[in-house]
Amino acid sequence: MIRQRYLRFNGHAMSYTWKRLGTPLDMTKTLQDNGVEDDAAELRSLGLAGNSYLPTIHLYFNDDLTVA
């Protein structure tokens, strides 16, 4: 699900390993199902609105020679 949504922005999305806090994401699940929570409402209640505190997902390129 995650990777399919990203494919429209990067045709080589299948060539990456996606990780959150060092753990690979299960690409058949949503971000929330992978433990990447949307904390926007809680952050706003604490006066920390905006895009300053977004969860980070690292993409590691796998040199698998895919062609998009």
How is this structure best described in words?
The relative contact order is 0.26. Helices cover 16% and strands 16% of the residues. The model has no long low-confidence stretch (mean pLDDT 84). A hairpin with a 2-residue loop joins strand 1 (16-20) and strand 2. The chain has a 3-stranded antiparallel sheet with strand order 2-1-3, with no helix packed on it. It starts with a helix and ends in a 7-residue tail after the last strand. It has one domain. It is α+β, with helices and mostly antiparallel strands and 68 residues long.
Judged by helices, strands and strand pairing, the structural class is alpha+beta
Order of helices and strands: HEEHE
| Overall average pLDDT | 84
Q: What is the count of helical runs?
A: 2
Which key phrases capture this entry?
single chain; 68 residues; alpha+beta; 3-stranded antiparallel beta sheet; 3 strands; elongated
How is the topology of this model organized?
Elements: H1 2-6, E1 16-20, E2 23-24, H2 40-45, E3 58-61
Antiparallel strand pairs: 1-2, 1-3
